[in-house]
Amino acid sequence: MGRTGLAFCPGHISGYFLPVRTGEPVTSGSSGAGIVISEGVTVRVEPSEKPEVVIHRVESPGGPEEVIMGSPPIEYAMERLGVAAVVSTTCRLPIGAGYGLSAAALLASVHALNRLFGLGLTPDTCTAYAHEAEIVHRTGLGDVAACQGGGRDCRTGPGIHARIERAFDLKEPLVAVTFGQLLSPGILGSDEKMEQVRAAYPGRCPSDAPDFFRLSRSFAEKSGLITREVRRALIACDEAAVLASMTMLGNGVFAYGKDASAVLGEFGKPWVLTTASGGTTLFPGDER
User: Fold this and answer.
1) How far apart are CA 215 and CA 25, in angstroms?
2) What angle do CA 234, 102, 68 make, to 5 degrees?
């Protein structure tokens, strides 16, 4: 067996955000608030003559598998690191649905590649490479910064070095449902949509979990991003007095409370999620 590296990074649901683009990846990103979730991306890396990325989505053990070849952000990160590897990523949650999986895949990949090739990069430098790839390819703004740690996060500035407040106060069930993709590059690359998002930003961190959902919902309403499917699910949550908002950026809804699963289950498969306790984890690989 050849040398391998293995890492996992949790995903992230963003409730609201303020985009910041300065022309430099290190100072670009977003302020905002979200939840780092225990579901995420596992990455396996092996040295090869040329870079290759294979994305696997397996919803349940033994179930059907979705396979996607190639990932420009991960390929870009390998080029910046000066290494070539076969990178295999595996996740359960839907891709492109607002769960921060692109950021999770990048963070896990860079950390695994760093260990496998003995690059000697600090965790902070690994995160910087992942953030740069996300910003350059417009697949996200603040998810990499958020996924450095766990909990319910509030990022007080753009980039990976801004202060991040974290709370572990989600004691009731957190549930999400997805209606399909809402491709981030098309939204993040639209000046008109970003102006609506900036105008909707609440300008502060939430005081507690219910306040986070209230601020997120207000942001979703004012941002103009709510789709028809999301609107129907939000109305049902309102009627059941369930705190809920739209996954940013994804065509789906996340909700909080003991009745959330029953309500969202009427609209699709409900994903019952928990808050992640931390960020990227490296596992023993075969590094001979």
Assistant:
1) 27
2) 100
Domains in the chain, CATH or no CATH each: 5-165 (3.30.230.10), 168-273 (3.30.70.890)
Q: Are 122 and 138 in contact (CB under 8 A)?
A: no
User: What stretches of 21-50 adopt beta strand conformation (E)?
Assistant: 29-47
pLDDT tens across 167-207, in order? 999 999 999 999 987 655 666 667 777 888 899 999 999 99
Q: What pTM, to 2 d.p., does this model score? A: 0.93
Helices (H), the chain: 72-81, 101-116, 123-136, 143-146, 184-188, 191-200, 209-223, 228-239, 260-264
Residue from 223, 206, 270, 275 nearest 242 by CA? 270
Amino acid at the residue 167: A
Q: Which tokens go with 271?
A: 């994903």
